[in-house]
Amino acid sequence: MTERQGTALAVPPEGKESGSAVEGMGIPHRHASIPGTYFVTSRTWESRCLFVNEPMCTVFVETLFRYQTDRVYGLHAFVLMPDHFHILLTPAQNVTLEKAVQFIKGGSARKLGIEGRLRFPVWQRGFSDHRIRNTADYASHLHYIEQNPVRKNLAIAPRDYRWSSAAGVYTMDVSPQGLKPQEGTKQFGTAEAVP
Prior knowledge:
Blueprint: E1 38-43, H1 54-69, E2 73-80, E3 84-91, H2 97-115, E4 128-131, H3 135-151
Antiparallel strand pairs: 1-3, 1-4, 2-3
């Protein structure tokens, strides 16, 4: 099976089903990291359920926030599931998306390997990403992140899942600035009045 880029299967656009023609598309070539906000997903090696105990989860979350504190990226939302993670982030101007994800996966893998005495890789190669296009797209992916533990029966409500930004105990960066407003919303200003 070919590894895919993007999240067309994880978060179908409104009104579209996940079984669309997008599934058969090839992997697009990566550009030299386009600035913006991204929804990123990565799985554990062989989809092993590594993140089921507090010490392992803590290592990942500490790594995630260490690079946020170092301003490698703005962190808007996250969820750590037993065998994968989802993150909404905005890489810093001088940091590519690939480098930001490398910090997260590489930094956590190194510490997890030492502390967990793992004799196998922590993460699968690569990751999936989706560039956030507008406020509706951002809201859709934020909702997906928050509801993931509920959908997987790990929590009754998003705030009940400790390893998620929805728990309300983590300091997150504000929503990214400059996203286009949701289509169909009324625009204010003179852009339409002046030809």
